Amino acid sequence: MEYLFSDKTISFNQDVLETFRSFRQVGTHQHEAGGILLGRIYQDGKVIVEQISTPGRYDKSGKYFFERNVKYAQQIVNKAWKDSNGEIQYLGEWHTHPEMNPTPSSVDHKLLKGMINDSKLEIDFLFLVIVGIDGFYVASQTKDEELRELHLVR
Question: Which parts of the sequence belong to the JAB domain (predicted)?
């Protein structure tokens, strides 16, 4: 799965895709799940999501919401950064929606816009992945633009 983003591409390794699929909200009373995206940015413009966090005991969720614990997520980011000698970094957020083909809510738009504007990241973009029952919604957020859906290239 590879998406076009400006002059870059973003792709997901197989383990990440399998984890996404394992959290799809296929059950009637299944809660939303989510976490953070971690990966590498290469000189040639490739962005590869190599790891994701999964819901932890300090996260909160319901059928129509997921709220990750910021402190726990930061610990995951710090460990990935340290263990990779600064190569693996925070790239954005993911969560599920109980829809066949998901679309972002107003909360999703507000969350990503706030995160990019308030962040001290080394990158000037973030990604959002929403995992639906049948499909994925993948988008980018920059300081200058609204949340923008990315298109699958392969």
Answer: 28-132
Asked if 31 and 62 touch (Cβ cutoff 8 Å), the reply is yes
* 96 touches 130 (CB < 8 A): yes
pLDDT at 144 (0 to 100): 87
- 86: helix, strand or coil: coil
Domain ranges of the chain: 2-152
Please provide the CATH number assigned to the domain covering 2-152. Answer: 3.40.140.10
Q: Which two tokens stand for residue 50?
A: 């190599």
Look-up: residue for tokens 């001290």? 120
Q: Is 32 a catalytic residue?
A: yes
- Calculate the dihedral angle through the C-alpha atoms of 133, 134, 135, 136, rounding to the nearest 10 degrees: 20
Q: Which one of 2, 18, 32, 149 is the catalytic residue? A: 32
Report the pLDDT value the prediction gives residue 84, as an integer from 0 to 100: 97
Tell me the pTM.
Answer: 0.94
Strand order in the sheet with 8-12: 148-149, 136-142, 125-131, 89-96, 34-41, 46-52, 8-12, 2-5, 151-152
